[in-house]
Amino acid sequence: MIKWIELAEKQPPKEGKYLVSDGNEPDIAIYQLFNATEYQWYPSDKSPLFGEQITHWAFINLPGESVDTISILNSIPVEIWSSEGDTIEYINIIYDAENIGKLLSIGVTSSEIDENADESGSIIDISPFVFKYTVANGFDEEGFHL
To answer: How far is Cα 28 from Cα 57, in angstroms, rounded to an integer?
Structure first.
């Protein structure tokens, strides 16, 4: 499964080659610094897309380069969690730069993080969104797992 990221939500972290789409057509484009402050998309000449049509992007993981999202998630300390049967009610983590960096590294958007933070801005409930960014299909006292 491709983990598409909305361009309006998050820009690629660095220059490089990415999988891109306008919502209908997929292709590959280069994301590159255009001037001192702006980046632009450069699809190939035979691409059905123009740079300004790109609305989504995804990392290209070559064989042996895939991100181990389960290990990243299991490196985030869980403060408290609850489930009833097979239903996860909440998985709360501390809202700090290190945990946010780990969530962003697996494709979670800043808006998802902010929307699921508590009113004090100190805790994030990751249960509403985290499973769409990983192959993990469960969580228990030992962490995320297949």
So the answer is: 9
Instruction: Provide the domain limits for residue 37.
Output: 5-58
Cα distance between residue 50 and residue 45, in whole Å: 9
85 versus 93: the higher-pLDDT residue is 93
Q: How many CB atoms lie within 10 A of CB 46?
A: 6
Shared-domain flag, residues 39 and 12: yes
CA–CA dist 73, 125 (Å, integer): 13
Which residue matches tokens 């990983």?
Answer: 134
Number of H helices, E strands in the chain: 3, 10
Question: Measured between alpha carbons, how far is 59 from 3 in angstroms, rounded to an integer?
Answer: 8
Q: Is 131 contained in some domain?
A: yes
To the nearest 10°, report the CA torsion of 64, 10, 54, 62: 0
What one-letter code names the amino acid at 138?
G
Range 16-44 average pLDDT: 93
Pairwise CA distance, residues 54 & 31, whole Å? 11
**Is 26 among the domain residues?**
yes
